[in-house]
Amino acid sequence: MTTRRKKICPETVTQFVRHGRKTTRNLVVGVLITEAFCMSPIAYAQTPDKPAVPATPAKAATPVKPAEPKPEETNSKTGPVSKTDSKPVTSDAPASSSGEPQSVTVQAERPSNRIDRQVYDVKSDVASTNGTAADALNNIPSVSVDPDGTISLRGSTKVQILIDGKPSAMMQGDNRGASLNAMPSHDIESIEVINNPGAQFGNEGGGGPILNLVMRRNRQPGGFGVVNANAGSAGRYNSAASGSYHEGLFGIQGGVNFRHDGRNSVGEAVRDRLDLGQHSTQESASAGLNNSSGVNAAITYNIGTKDTLGANFSYARRNNDQKSTDHYLNIGQINSDYVRSTQRGGESTNYSWGGRYDRKGDINGEIMRLDLRVSGSDNTSSNAYSNVYSNVDASSPIIFTDVHSKQNNANNIKIVDFTGDYERPDEKGLLKMGYKIANNKSEFDTSYFNIDPISNTAILNPSRTNSYNLDEANIALYGSYQLRLNEKWGVLAGLRTEYTHIDIQQLTTRIEATNHYINYIPSFFASYKASDDTTLRFSYAHRIRRANANELNPFVVYRDELNYSSGNPKLKPAQTDSFELAYETRVIGLDMNIRGYYRTESDSILSRKIPINDTVVLTTLENGGGNHSSGVEFTLSGKLTPKLSINTSGNLLFIEQKILNTAGQEIQRSASSLSLRGRFNYQLSEQDQLQISLNSQGKTLSGEGYRQPNSTANFSLRHTITPSLNLVLNVTDIFNSNKIETIVDTDTLKEHNIRRYDGRLIYVGLSYRFGGNTAGGQGNNRQEMRRPPPPGQS
Fold this sequence. Notes:
Elements lengths: L9 H15 L3 E6 L10 E2 L29 E2 L3 E2 L20 E6 L10 E4 L11 H6 L4 E3 L5 E3 L6 E4 L11 H8 L5 E7 L15 E6 L6 E11 L4 E11 L2 E12 L3 E9 L4 E10 L2 E14 L3 E13 L2 E9 L6 E24 L6 E24 L11 E24 L3 E23 L6 E3 L5 E19 L4 E18 L4 E19 L5 E11 L3 H4 L4 E4 L2 E3 L8 E14 L2 E13 L2 E7 L5 E7 L2 E14 L4 E17 L5 E18 L4 E10 L2 E3 L2 E3 L2 E13 L2 E8 L6 E7 L3 E9 L3 E11 L23
Parallel strand pairs: 9-11, 30-34
Antiparallel strand pairs: 1-2, 1-5, 3-4, 6-10, 7-8, 10-11, 12-13, 12-45, 13-14, 14-17, 15-16, 15-44, 16-19, 17-18, 18-20, 19-20, 20-21, 21-22, 22-23, 23-24, 23-25, 25-26, 26-27, 27-28, 28-31, 29-30, 31-32, 32-35, 33-34, 35-36, 36-37, 37-38, 38-41, 39-40, 40-43, 41-42, 42-45, 43-44
């Protein structure tokens, strides 16, 4: 980078770097310097929304005081890293021979830890070229993603997933797990962990802590692109390509991806009914690889120096073809030994489009944003069943030992989200306010048919046919103020008000219900800079968790011969209060974070298993009791040696839960668990990098039972063939240890479920980069990708 100057004031450079971090959140900005005096840091700024535009020189030499309060921040590659890792300010350059003011370029890395969240950069992960979003999330401290896509954070599954700060239909309900397993991790720039969300965040999709997937954005002038192609074991493969072009006031970027993948599994369940003295077993196996593909594009155009227009579009599609068998056996019951074969087929389509308008105000840091996002998810599936009975009793009503049926499912989700946000700094702080108008429509349709064994015609089974609609409207207002009290203290306080209106139509049973309520959601954050390397943080947030569409559906859904399920339209929102105290420092050159947290929830939405006859158990939901969780989370990351870097974390969790037993009596359960995670990168040579990831998930409470601990290990190797071409080897679940094991233990029911997946998978692939700066391979090009400021987030 070439830098020219006539004269540089250290004070101006210092203010400039602070200004750049606070207001524009850039990597590259500039200051005008004259021969006679040092000018304020307002000459020009290359924001994430527009290219650098020279500004008129300041009329006075008075330095501009940074407007936005500066919570002490840190930087990271694969985890939170302190400011000492930032690139130094560069000012060495030959003097200009002209008498005109010249510019000096100051470079610093974008901060990661902010007053209300932790930001983890996932670009430098060796496995990112062939991994999925679920793989990327599994590398984040205290985050766990099951093979079936279930996400938990600090032992809680009540987690919101946002994309660029916005809710998306593809991350709602049962669609979320499949979407995370189909989304390429290469498309993600960073993941924001927001344990205590502030006032700008709504309560969609869970209302608990938030995982915000920040998608990659390239802001370099000119063209840039990358192509990945990978082949895996058992016929798996995937590929992706992305690129961008920016010139003057115009920018465009986009990408395409394709994946042929899946997880085969085997499982078994043992159930004992204590009230009836019955014992039953279920053995299952499922197999099938599926295709998923996607395309996305975004365009930005700068209207002058203050106004920016943007538009985005994405489309993704995947199929769901699978074969499975289940063997059911109820000991001591007639006609209870049979094998159920299932042939599944279907597809899912996800789409989103949106527009955005940003306008900068007359003072530094003042900005107004309008953002419209529309997203939808259309899912269809068909299931063909065949039950083959053994040892049929001669006196039983079963005449045919081979019984056939089929089931068709269709569900559609559409979310319209319109937000407006305004930010205005003053001498000491930053005011933020905004609004949100959103509508979420969900439609579910299930048709079940029995196949007549003689005529082979399909006969509708009304007891297993279900049609259900939900319409949820939400209006929200929020405001917050971030204040810098002095050089050491910074605070942020906010309040959000939400009005929610829900209409439910159970068309099959002709049940209609309406509910509406107002919630007031406060939040508070504080930071204290004890030294250059040490920061203390405190946060508090009140949140609500609204039940989703499936949880509100009262219809009894047939799962299999032993299991039915239903929702509850009378569910109330669960109320959560969360507190956190964090200590961030450096130890022996490593970055260390320690966070203590406490979370309490009332009106918890809990699952209950209720026997409805001798063999079938109904799983439903109720508000009951509450739960309390507390724990200590730690992270330790950095370079141990010039060649070895580590990113380790752990979470010691204690959880106490109140549930209702079969008789409706409240009982209390508790559990302690320790989860550990480590990622170790070693530079074998100038061309070779080795990465080993270890993950151990502790025991967690789940519904009326608990989930047993689980551990996995992954291995990756990257070889740089040329500055533009890398060869990547990735092995997941090296020891075939990945499983989901749950145990239910109530006064009437004991159940043990275990499901194992096909475990060890091997991928080999190539990654080719073109345009821009390709030196050093992936992760070393600091300016390769940029993201815009979070859109709206309200």
